[in-house]
What does this fold into?
Amino acid sequence: MSEPTSSVMPSDGVLASLRRGETTATELTKRYLARIERHDGAIGAFFSVSPNALADAAAADAQAREGRSPGPLCGLPVGIKDNIDTAGLRTTVGSSFFVDHVPAADAEVVARLRGAGAVILGKLALHEFAYGSTCENRHVRSCRNPWDLARIPGGSSGGSAAALAAELCAAALGTDTGGSVRIPGALNGVAALRPTQGAISNRGVFPITWSFDTVGPMARSVADVAALAEVLAGFDRGDPGSRPGPSAELGYEAALRAELRPLRVGLPTSFYFDEVDAEIVGLVRAAADVLASLGLEPADVDLPGAEDAQVAATRIIWAEALAIHEERLASAPERFGEDVRTRLRSGERVSGVEFGRMLQRAREWRRSVEEVFERFDLLLVPTTGVVAPLAAQSEMIETTRRLTRLTYGFSLAGLPVLDVPCGFSSEGLPVGMQLVAPPWGEATLLAVGAAYQRATDWHRRTPPLAD
It folds into this structure.
């Protein structure tokens, strides 16, 4: 495999370059559109490209020239996962049921992006109904990993991560139920935030579950993730799952500039480093050493109940996904891909009695994690136990089980988690780590992630695509 190349992206992110006037929204948008045309035929990251992207970028630049702020996102070109509604732009959810669906209104998160001056570049690939981790999709198109086109990008937000890695967009929105921004973030070498459950609105986003779904901002730079999160976070009365968070001492972007406190970082002694490739373990522990050099205090911690948490999250996801698709599955089962249909029917094995037991197991797990956070400020674990698998060897249900092993538990606890790239395997494939905080700890996560990126350059490396 060819060596990765260094990105033209500034070390502090694309948005910082826009704000400094080093580039314009139009220049960036033209560059991304040209790269989509050149490279995306092989990658498959975009389901569709917005015909209004250049006009929207020109409007943002005109505002800037006239001395009017185009908004905090300054014309930043953003890709949107295709289960998030975009007014006037096809939103397929990666399925035959919605392949021609054009929403009349934006999802709340898209409305907030537009209001902050972002340019909507297009709609990004996902697994059918966002219910799988391979991003193989027979209804629209399949997506591959730009680091090795024979490999999957992970999922379900595989298109979002692949587009970022290949520099087809500056930032992206994905969705995360059990790991769907974090897993492709790790497998493609980009940063991804799963926020505290309820911190970002799900209104206008097609659901997988009601309990765990959240929109997650993604970018190659944690600084860009923080800027997106600052725009997206906030109570939405129109979303029954939305929760008002506590008043923050600092905004997310301001937190990046504050001096890091000597935070205690726990590395679990079991489960999260078990059955993980040795190279990945070594890279995550090396990242802990970098954090120590920045003044943080890594130490081992016992975190009981992780295996039970994975089982509980699995059963709850199965049951709720089946409830969401029950009528479609009964009336037109042939319209589902075989993999998704089979996985949905797993929910038939979850009785009401078992569902109740799983909810209690979730409460017990949350209490275990709360007790750990009485002694530690953050947790540090691998995002996945393997690098990106080969597509030819990725049966969806088993691959999803394997890739979500280290992510499900934190979804079950409703915690904020930041995936950050932390190195490359001997095969030249990206590896990611998860930083985990207590509820509403996003500012701390982002500050630590940004400090780590200032000390390393993993996030600036790009796949060796031919230009």
About this structure: The radius of gyration is 20 Å. The mean pLDDT is 96. The chain is about 40% helix and 15% strand.
